[in-house]
Write a structure and sequence with these properties.
The chain has a 5-stranded mixed beta sheet, covered by helices on one side. A two-stranded antiparallel sheet has the order 1-3. It starts with a helix and ends with a helix. The chain has about 325 residues and is α+β, with helices and mostly antiparallel strands. It has 10 helices and 7 strands. The model has no long low-confidence stretch (mean pLDDT about 80). It is about 60% helix and about 15% strand. It catalyses: ATP + protein L-histidine = ADP + protein N-phospho-L-histidine. Its main location: membrane. This is histidine kinase.
C-alpha cells in the first residue's frame, strides 16, 4: 500500500529533492552562506517532509483501500490502461454512467415512440365519428345552423389534420413519393374542403394556372397549400383569393394572394417560428402558431422555397418556388 502511495506522490518527492539539492549547490557556490547551516536546513526539511508524508499517508489510506477493493470487484480487462488507480476508478465511473444514460435514452425513445403511435391511433379513431358528424350536418335543412356547425366541424378537422402531420414530420424522408402533381386537382380538392367557410365569409377564388403540374409529393404539398389557403380565408373578408402558377427563372411557382389584414413588417421574419402568432393581434386565442411552422419544415424536405410579401391592412402573398428537376435526384435517392 505504501508503495502505491509513494508512486502516486513521486513527482512531489522528486520536486522536493531537487529543491534541496539546489539549496546545497547555492551554498557551495556562494561563500557568504555557511555550508553547515544549509546542511542543517536540508536535514530539518527532510524530517518535516517525511512526517508530512506519514500524516498524509494515514489520511489517504482509506482511499487507496477503496481503489484496491474496486479493482478486485470489477473486471478491468474492459477498461483502457490508465496511468494510475485514481484514473482507472474515474474511467470506470464514467463508463458506468454512460451505460446508464444509454439505457435511459433507449427507454425514453421507446416511450416517445409508443406515445406517438397512441396519438396517431387516437386521431384515426376520432376521424370516424367526425365523418359521421359531417354526414349528419349535410342532412340539416336549417341553412344558418348548418353553416355554423360546418364551420366548427372544419376547425376540428383542420386541427386534427395538423396534429397528424406534425407527428409524421420527423419521418417525412421515409414517406416522400415524388411525382407529377396536377395543381388544378389538388387546389380544387382543398378549396372544396373550405367551401362552407368561404361561403360564410363571402370569399371567392380567382385561379389562373399557367403551370399545370409540378414535381413534388402530392400529400405533403397538399398540406402546405391547405395551410396557406386556410390562413388566407381566416384573415380575409368578402374578397377574392388569387391563386396563380407561372414560371420564373426556369422554376415553377405557385402563388396564393389574399386581400386580408396583412402581416406587420416586424413579424414577417418570425412567422415560421414555432408558436409565433402575431404582435398586432396578440390577443387572438384561436391562433396556434403551428401552421406555418409545420409548413416551413415540410417545404424544406420538398426543396421548396417560400417567398412572403405583405402589407399591413392590404393583404399577403405567399409564393412557393419549386426546385429544378435535377434537385429531386437527391430526394429520390433517399
Amino acid at each position: 500500500m505504501i508503495r502505491t502511495y509513494l508512486l502516486e506522490r513521486s513527482s512531489w518527492i522528486l520536486l522536493f529533492s531537487g529543491l534541496q539539492v539546489l539549496a546545497l549547490l547555492v551554498a557551495l557556490v556562494d561563500t557568504t552562506i555557511p555550508v553547515t547551516s544549509m546542511l542543517y536546513y536540508v536535514f530539518l526539511s527532510i524530517i518535516i517532509f517525511i512526517i508530512f508524508l506519514f500524516v498524509r499517508y494515514r489520511k489517504e489510506t482509506p482511499f487507496y483501500v477503496a481503489i484496491d477493493q474496486r479493482e478486485h470487484d470489477l473486471d478491468l480487462t474492459t477498461i483502457p490502461e490508465s496511468d494510475s488507480p485514481f484514473e482507472r476508478i474515474i474511467e470506470t465511473n464514467v463508463s458506468d454512467q454512460m451505460e446508464h444514460l444509454k439505457q435511459e435514452l433507449a427507454h425514453n425513445q421507446g416511450y416517445l415512440e409508443q406515445e406517438k403511435d397512441e396519438l396517431l391511433s387516437w386521431i384515426h379513431e376520432v376521424k370516424t365519428p367526425l365523418t359521421a358528424m359531417r354526414l349528419i350536418i349535410d342532412r340539416l335543412d336549417d341553412y344558418k345552423l348548418k353553416s355554423q356547425l360546418t364551420y366548427e366541424w372544419l376547425r376540428i378537422h383542420l386541427l386534427l389534420d395538423q396534429q397528424l402531420h406534425q407527428k409524421r414530420i420527423p419521418f417525412i424522408e421515409n414517406d416522400l413519393y415524388i411525382e407529377e402533381v396536377e395543381l388544378e386537382a389538388l387546389l380544387f380538392n382543398e378549396i372544396k374542403s373550405l367551401k362552407s367557410w368561404c361561403m360564410q365569409k363571402g370569399i371567392g377564388f380567382d385561379i389562373d394556372l399557367e403551370v399545370e403540374s409540378v414535381l413534388s409529393d402530392s400529400k405533403w404539398l397538399a398540406f402546405i397549400v391547405r395551410q396557406l389557403l386556410t390562413n388566407a380565408v381566416k384573415y380575409s373578408d368578402a374578397t377574392d383569393i388569387a391563386i396563380t402558377s407561372f414560371t420564373k427563372d426556369g422554376r415553377s411557382c405557385l402563388q396564393v394572394k389574399d386581400q386580408g389584414r396583412g402581416i406587420d413588417p416586424r413579424d414577417i421574419s418570425r412567422i415560421f417560428e414555432k408558436g409565433f402568432t402575431s404582435t398586432t393581434q396578440h390577443q387572438d386565442s384561436a391562433a396556434t402558431g403551428m401552421g406555418l411552422y409545420l409548413t416551413d419544415r415540410i417545404r424544406k424536405a420538398l426543396k421548396i422555397h417560400i417567398k412572403v410579401d405583405s402589407e399591413l391592412g392590404a393583404g399577403t402573398t405567399f409564393t412557393l418556388i419549386f426546385p429544378e428537376q435535377n434537385e429531386f435526384t437527391k430526394i429520390r435517392s433517399m
